[in-house]
Recover the amino acids of this structure.
């Protein structure tokens, strides 16, 4: 099947290249339209916090708020008073603003800082204002505030500004990652491939896959909310998988050319071998991403849809665009003979590991287990303004609220009830809450429609912390004599963590079972898939431990340019798990395909492992190195959650490609020996019927110019054994080698 597709792409390569060029153009146009439709996907609407927020939103005309911080001269100074009043009147005229209060128009003492040198202006906005980058309300307010109070620093923060800053910072980080990683990637590809044409091939495939993915995403954006981080998913996976698949296919193409095949036959051979591996790889990555659907969270669904679409488009590019490019550029690509274990570094490394397998296995497993220990004291946050760039006004306003304004330092925990605020029970309940430990202030919201009331409980400390979490638990465990819904920032975080904890066993089981089935179809073994899943868990544990050690505990904070606040984003472990698991299985498939190839040729398990690692080790480590370059481009971003995502995936890929694939896999397969290939008799029969077996079409050698094998060895001449190693083994190799070729 793969050879047939490749044969068509070779014969009609101009049409295939023209089709992908058209997809590139259409995709770029679709991407521009998709950018305008991006919107926060929101959370699970079935949680208590979501239901309470929905009741409150329906009962109120108020939208998000912006908080203007005026800091510098004394608040009681006459000139400050006049300037702030003028600014207040100006802000009240901004389109979308429904009300403005300041320290001079409200008796609320919370609007004045403790030291008397800062005050707040609270601006109420219409619903749905400030939720997209196109919203001009925040931009207008910041322009009006600039220089409005002589001698003062005026900044605009609050919920509305934080949403606007988050969207803009995300887009900025995306562009920065592209600007940093692409030039470095091109240079690295040039040295890895040894030429400009093969170096451009992965980038052409990557750009085409990224652009083409925007076409289905445009349709998705019209049907459901698609968050801005969908762009990061498309860029990371599209470019990363294109690089991986291009490396694999170019390597197979060069081997076939070194064996004497023509360009067309080499492309067919590449598709029949590497194309099969690429398909397995894409299926494993897509399977891992599909586990996000289990959580039922709109944000996770958006990531899964974006990721799976990218994987499928990258697979299509690998099976059609890359063969067409190889057919066009193939004569310019240098041939490279297939290697055996004795031919290079990775084969020698495998032999050394096989000499002391217990030491390697226990040493690597112990190291990874130790690296996972920091994850045992993980703390979570969700949408905290402190994840924004430290230079953003939202971050600085939030920091000032926390340190200088009692009662304004945290978002309230809101207790929503379907009885009017005038009901005596509401007042009595609010009075009782005011005396609870950890409560800084309590107030009752008035003016809500539909006999709805809300009690705002301000915790001491931050919006999301131990005190706020304790109060949410207390409010839910000890309810009054009427129905209540506890919502707010910390309540949303509590519900989100509970949702993940309840669903993650099912998601993990689905990913593990689906991955097991795919690897069984590939290898015919039940031991190898189980071992692969276990090793991935070890690798991911080390990644999560590093994530907590760096971003929660604050190690390397000055080097990476962030300020730790004692938590990581609650979504990070789930997203990183699915991405890293999929990419890890990507490299597992690359390695296993070569090991199984050698084993099917009749080699012992130990020899097959050594040959397989030598033939795939350079591809795996090169692909991982290039992926790390892409991921580290995101570490240069300004937002903390983007840094977390980029560094965690860079660590996961680096650990997997080195410690796991180069050390732990050879060690464990050596220890298991023949047991690696064990399966119960019924499953063996099932694999013979349904398994995907490697039976590539042999690349045909040109008849007129068949290269002669060397007749003797000497200085500078390969031995007969080395010449034979250049010829693919198995049925394809026998056809290619012909009569008299040394085996």
């Amino acid at each position: 099947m793969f050879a047939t597709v490749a044969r068509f792409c070779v014969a009609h390569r101009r049409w295939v290249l023209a089709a992908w060029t058209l997809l590139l153009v259409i995709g770029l146009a679709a991407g521009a339209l998709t950018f305008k439709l991006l919107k926060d996907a929101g959370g699970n609407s079935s949680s208590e916090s979501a239901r309470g927020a929905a009741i409150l939103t329906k009962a109120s005309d108020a939208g998000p708020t912006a908080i203007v911080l005026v800091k510098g001269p004394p608040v009681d100074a006459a000139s400050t008073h006049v300037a702030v009043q003028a600014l207040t009147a100006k802000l009240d005229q901004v389109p979308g603003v429904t009300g403005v209060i300041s320290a001079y128009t409200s008796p609320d003492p919370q609007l004045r800082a403790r030291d008397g040198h800062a005050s707040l202006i609270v601006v109420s906005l219409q619903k749905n204002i400030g939720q997209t980058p196109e919203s001009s309300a925040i931009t207008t307010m910041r322009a009006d505030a600039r220089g409005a109070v002589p001698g003062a620093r005026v900044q605009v923060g609050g919920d509305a500004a934080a949403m606007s800053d988050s969207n803009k910072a995300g887009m900025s980080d995306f562009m920065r990652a592209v600007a940093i990683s692409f030039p470095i990637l091109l240079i690295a590809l040039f040295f890895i491939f040894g030429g400009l044409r093969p170096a451009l091939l992965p980038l052409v495939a990557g750009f085409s896959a990224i652009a083409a993915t925007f076409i289905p995403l445009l349709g998705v954006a019209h049907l459901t909310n698609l968050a801005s981080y969908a762009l990061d998913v498309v860029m990371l996976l599209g470019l990363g998988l294109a690089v991986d698949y291009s490396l694999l296919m170019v390597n197979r193409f060069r081997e076939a050319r070194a064996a004497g095949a023509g360009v067309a036959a080499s492309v067919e051979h590449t598709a029949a071998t590497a194309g099969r591996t690429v398909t397995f790889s894409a299926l494993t990555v897509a399977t891992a991403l599909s586990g996000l659907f289990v959580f039922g969270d709109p944000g996770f669904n958006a990531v899964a849809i974006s990721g799976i679409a990218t994987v499928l488009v990258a697979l299509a590019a690998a099976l059609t665009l890359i063969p067409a490019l190889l057919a066009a550029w193939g004569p310019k690509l240098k041939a490279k003979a297939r290697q055996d274990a004795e031919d290079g570094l990775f084969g020698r490394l495998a032999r050394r590991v096989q000499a002391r397998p217990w030491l390697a296995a226990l040493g690597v497993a112990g190291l990874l287990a130790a690296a996972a220990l920091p994850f045992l004291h993980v703390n979570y946050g969700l949408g905290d303004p402190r994840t924004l760039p430290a230079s953003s006004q939202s971050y600085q306003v939030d920091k000032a609220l926390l340190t200088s304004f009692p009662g304004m330092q945290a978002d309230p925990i809101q207790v929503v009830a379907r009885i009017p605020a005038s009901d005596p029970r509401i007042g009595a309940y609010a009075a009782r809450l005011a005396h609870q430990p950890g409560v800084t202030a309590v107030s009752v919201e008035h003016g809500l429609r539909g006999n709805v009331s809300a009690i705002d409980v301000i915790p001491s400390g931050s919006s999301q912390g131990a005190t706020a979490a304790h109060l949410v638990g207390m409010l839910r465990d000890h309810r009054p004599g009427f129905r209540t819904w506890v919502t707010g920032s910390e309540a949303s975080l509590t519900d989100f963590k509970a949702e993940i904890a309840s669903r993650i066993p099912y998601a993990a089981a689905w990913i593990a079972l689906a991955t097991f089935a795919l690897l069984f179809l590939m290898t015919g073994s039940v031991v190898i898939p189980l071992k692969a899943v276990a090793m991935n868990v070890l690798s991911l544990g080390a990644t999560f431990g590093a994530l907590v050690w760096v971003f929660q505990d604050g190690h390397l904070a000055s080097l990476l340019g962030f300020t730790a606040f004692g938590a990581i984003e609650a979504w990070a472990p789930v997203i990183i798990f699915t991405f890293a698991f999929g990419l890890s299985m990507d490299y597992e498939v690359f390695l296993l395909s070569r090991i199984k190839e050698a084993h099917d040729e009749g080699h012992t398990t130990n020899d097959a492992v050594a040959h397989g690692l030598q033939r795939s080790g350079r591809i795996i480590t090169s692909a991982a190195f290039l992926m790390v370059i892409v991921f580290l481009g995101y570490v240069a971003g300004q937002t903390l959650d983007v840094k977390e995502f980029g560094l965690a995936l860079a660590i996961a890929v680096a650990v997997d490609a080195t410690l796991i694939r180069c050390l732990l896999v050879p060690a464990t397969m050596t220890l298991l020996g023949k047991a690696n290939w064990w399966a119960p008799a019924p499953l063996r029969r099932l694999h013979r019927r349904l398994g995907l077996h490697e039976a590539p079409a042999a690349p045909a050698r040109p008849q007129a110019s068949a290269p002669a094998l060397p007749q003797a060895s000497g200085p500078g001449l390969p031995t007969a054994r080395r010449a034979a190693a250049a010829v693919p083994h198995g049925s394809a190799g026998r056809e290619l080698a012909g009569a008299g070729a040394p085996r």
Q: What stands out?
A: Strands lie at 65-71, 97-102, 118-125, 153-157, 380-381, 413-417, 439-445, 453-459, 484-488, 568-569. Residues 423 and 453 are 9 Å apart (CA to CA). The chain is about 65% helix and 5% strand. The longest helix spans residues 158-193.
